[in-house]
From TrEMBL:
PANTHER family with a match to the protein in the record: ABC TRANSPORTER ATP-BINDING PROTEIN
Keyword Nucleotide-binding attached: yes
Protein name: ABC transporter ATP-binding protein
Membrane topology: Peripheral membrane protein
Organism of origin: Streptomyces thermoalcalitolerans
Amino acid sequence: MTTTAKTVTTTPVVGFDQVTKSYGDVRAVDGLTLTLHPGETVALLGPNGAGKSTTLDLLLGLKRPDSGTVRVFGTSPREAIVAGRVGAMLQSGGLMEEVTVAELVRLACALHPRRYEVDDVLARAGISKIADRKVNKLSGGQAQRVRFALATAGDSDLIVLDEPTTGMDVSARQAFWATMREQADQGRTVLFATHYLEEADAVADRVLVLHRGRLLTDGTAAEIKAKAGVRRVSFDLEGPVDETALRGLPFITSIDISGQTVRIQSADADATVHALYGLGVHPRNLEVTGLGLEQAFVALTEAEEARQS
Ligand SMILES: Nc1ncnc2c1ncn2[C@@H]1O[C@H](COP(=O)(O)OP(=O)(O)OP(=O)(O)O)[C@@H](O)[C@H]1O
């Protein structure tokens, strides 16, 4: 996206300013400040209990902050929702049991100030064929698709998704993200919490990592991988090698020796490889690669745990 004067002056989609929310002694969200801009697809990551769901609940006005302010399109979350600007798909619950899929989706469309046609919503969510089924007879993945339909029942500017693909099979997941990309391409802002880091890597143009209610990192997936600073070194051994010497290589954060194959994670891959040659080892099929988002996420959150303890 090119930055223009227009984007700079546009009202943020979401603005959290020093937001704190506790449950008894547990501080679920701790002084969180963040801004989401129009058209962004943003992944919200964090270990269990990091505060993702609470953050989304605050954004949707389902919970009120103890302190700080939450603004959505420059208004309160409630006003933004009443105006039909926000569509949401939450983790569980929220489905009336004794109605059919079509009835439920029809209701969601009727309630949306900028509603879509029911048949289009069903088709987009891939649930036309189960439209007459009772909601309490659905599989977990089908129920997720219905929640997705409810979140896209009208022309919302912001779509909020809490672990949307949990329970979906691989093809449902792919179809889901293809639809979500279309929504984003039409200029909508999409914010989703997930534990599937490969989804965040593939879909999000911005990744927020929460840790104990605070924002640990905020950047593109590539920036977060680079920030973790660790790279993978893998190679095959030729002939016997002194394992103790290998394990003593500098900057190693983990090492796995399996038969003739060695896999290392190193905080300074160049120095590790240099020292490897210094041992007189001639590695075959040497590869030095960056971490995936998943490993980077683990490295960053573990480092933060260590720092705080
Ligand atoms: N209703 C509640 N009452 C008491 N504590 C709560 C409540 N809801 C959440 N918490 C606590 O607040 C913290 C943040 O929870 P939250 O559900 O926001 O995290 P999360 O990042 O969404 O976790 P997960 O990945 O497991 O879904 C956790 O320590 C959780 O136990």
